[in-house]
């Protein structure tokens, strides 16, 4: 069974990744010649914080930069897993897959891309102290080079979604020289269309064209990825021309950018839900009734209409209603202050100090959302303060369970283009990204069954059942389903928006004089 073009079009036909009728995900057709010496500036919402470790979210920065590539690639338009650095693959047993590698590919440092380099990169990720959400020892047992052009990946159990995992940016491949005693050095060690050549720590990454790129001509001379975690600043930079592309525009800036004729605003529905994460591991939210009270206190349609200015829809649960694994019977939770008050009182919770609501600065709208939650919680007898901090600053404490609530957002398909990655990482007892610190053995059993189920329809039903448990247990308050919104300057050509935020600096990206 050759799965070189593993299609999932049927299962994704109804998913919310489809474009809305009024949205656009690509810049207009060029009306001027591209400048071969042009460079672009990208204002990125994410900053590298883990010394470029590929098991971390730093891998997304390298992918956005056009540096890091993977064996397979999930094509957002075609809804397929397609070849990238591998040309084809096949499942040779329930737990073994073999990948045939693309020949005549060079790393940017001139060394050969081969099976040994692939195994070296993937095994570094598997050996990490803090493993990646999609690629870790629970999902991949061993990676080995069979010969110069063939890699075998062995899984602990049958995993029909292994090609999706290999498309994760955490499964990116670097040359052997990138792995140093001091951490990862990505400079000139990728296979992509752009080579990182220098970095201003905490500020930006500079890129030059890869003149020997395996997939043909690279139109830009290079570019710069700026780490701008503040959403309002990203919006301003594309307006002033300081940035050519600004990613993840906050809803609070949308109207201003749409009124600017020099800016193209690209929108796509995305599998991203803004969420009030509740720490299930300590009081008060270790009590399911307090979590239900939190849900009853919040007016989600009002939040969507006011803070998000209609650019988001109130959430019904952990999935968007249009996703094929969502329960169609779930509705937007209704405000019920009286019942919420009774649940708070009956819990016996004695509040000796205000709870903290962390609003991450990467999403400018969260400060306003936090203020609304603060007021609505007050009406049911819960006092809270809003604290604004960058996500990178708070992640260690959040992962360690040292927090009350955090406003954040999560793209369900970003680790692997299937719900299994999100459901495993975010909510299983041993999940590597279980911010909620939730644990339910019945839930874990369902997710385990889904992982090995080959039939897509049956797998979708298992996903639905798992989502129903999360909703019943009121693990978090899922607030609104968001759109992906990017701002693009008028000189940019060939930019195709990726709702999964993996690819920006592609070989076809160009700019006029």
Structural commentary:
It contains 14 helices and 22 strands. It has helices spanning 9-12, 58-64, 115-126, 162-166, 231-240, 254-258, 288-297, 300-306, 337-347, 366-378, 391-399, 419-427, 441-452, 456-472, and strands at 6-7, 39-44, 72-75, 80-83, 86-93, 96-101, 142-147, 150-154, 179-180, 183-184, 194-200, 204-209, 222-227, 245-246, 263-278, 312-314, 355-360, 384-389, 405-411, 477-489, 492-493, 510-511. The strands form five sheets. Strands 2, 11, 12, 13, 14, 15, 16, 17, 18, 19 and 20 form an eleven-stranded mixed beta sheet that branches. Strands 5-6-8-7 form a four-stranded antiparallel beta sheet, with helices on one face. A three-stranded antiparallel beta sheet has the order 1-4-3. Helix 7 (288-297) packs antiparallel against helix 9 and helix 13 runs antiparallel to helix 14. Residues 1-23 have low confidence and may be disordered.
Tell me the structural class.
alpha+beta
Strand content: 15-25%
- Rg (C-alpha, Å): 23 Å
Number of helices: 14
Task: List segments where confidence is low: pLDDT < 50 over at least 5 consecutive residues.
Answer: 1-23
Estimate the helix proportion, in percent.
25-40%
First and last CA, distance: 49 Å
- The pLDDT mean sits at 92
Number of strands: 22
Overall geometry: globular
The biggest beta sheet reads: 11 strands, mixed
């Amino acid at each position: 069974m050759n799965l070189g073009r593993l299609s999932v079009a049927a299962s994704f036909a109804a998913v919310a990744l489809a474009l809305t009728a009024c949205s656009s995900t690509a810049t207009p057709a060029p009306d001027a010649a591209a400048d071969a010496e042009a460079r672009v500036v990208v204002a990125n919402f994410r900053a590298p914080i883990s010394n470029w470790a590929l098991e971390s979210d730093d891998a997304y920065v390298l992918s956005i930069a056009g540096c890091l590539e993977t064996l397979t690639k999930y094509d957002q338009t075609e809804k397929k897993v397609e070849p990238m650095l591998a040309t084809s693959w096949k499942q040779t047993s329930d737990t073994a897959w073999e990948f045939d590698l693309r020949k005549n590919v060079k790393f940017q440092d001139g060394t050969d891309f081969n099976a040994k380099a692939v195994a070296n990169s993937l095994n570094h990720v598997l050996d990490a102290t803090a493993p990646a959400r999609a690629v870790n020892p629970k999902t991949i047992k061993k990676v080995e080079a069979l010969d110069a052009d063939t890699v075998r990946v062995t899984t602990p159990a049958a995993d029909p979604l292994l090609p999706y995992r290999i498309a994760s940016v955490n499964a990116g491949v670097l040359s052997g020289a990138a792995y140093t005693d001091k951490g990862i050095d990505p400079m000139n060690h990728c296979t992509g269309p752009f080579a990182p050549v220098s970095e201003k720590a905490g500020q930006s990454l500079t890129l030059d064209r890869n003149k020997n790129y395996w997939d043909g001509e690279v139109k830009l001379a290079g570019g710069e990825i700026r780490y701008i975690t503040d959403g309002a600043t990203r919006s301003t930079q594309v307006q002033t021309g300081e940035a050519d592309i600004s990613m993840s525009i906050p809803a609070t800036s949308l109207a201003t950018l749409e009124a600017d004729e020099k800016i193209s605003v690209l929108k796509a529905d995305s599998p991203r839900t803004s969420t009030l994460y509740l720490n299930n591991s300590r009081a008060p939210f270790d009590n399911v009734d307090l979590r239900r009270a939190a849900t009853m206190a919040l007016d989600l349609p009002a939040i969507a209409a006011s803070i998000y200015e209609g650019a988001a829809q109130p959430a019904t649960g952990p999935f968007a209603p249009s996703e094929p694994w969502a329960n169609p019977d779930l509705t937007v939770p209704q405000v019920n202050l009286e019942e919420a008050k009774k649940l708070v009182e009956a819990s016996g919770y004695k509040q000796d100090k205000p709870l903290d609501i962390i609003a991450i600065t990467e999403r400018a709208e969260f400060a306003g959302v936090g203020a609304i939650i603060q007021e609505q919680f007050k009406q049911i007898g819960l006092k809270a303060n809003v604290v604004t901090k960058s996500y990178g600053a708070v992640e260690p404490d959040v992962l360690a369970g040292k927090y009350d609530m955090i406003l954040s957002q999560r793209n369900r398909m970003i680790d692997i283009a299937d719900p299994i990655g999100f459901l495993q990482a975010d909510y299983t007892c041993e999940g590597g990204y279980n911010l909620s610190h939730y644990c339910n053995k019945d839930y874990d059993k369902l997710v385990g069954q889904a992982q090995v189920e080959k039939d897509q329809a049956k797998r979708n039903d298992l996903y639905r059942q798992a989502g129903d448990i999360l909703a019943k247990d009121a693990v978090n308050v899922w607030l609104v389903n968001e759109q992906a919104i990017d701002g693009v300057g008028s000189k940019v050509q060939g930019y195709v928006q990726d709702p999964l935020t993996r690819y920006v600096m592609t070989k076809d990206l160009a700019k006029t004089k």
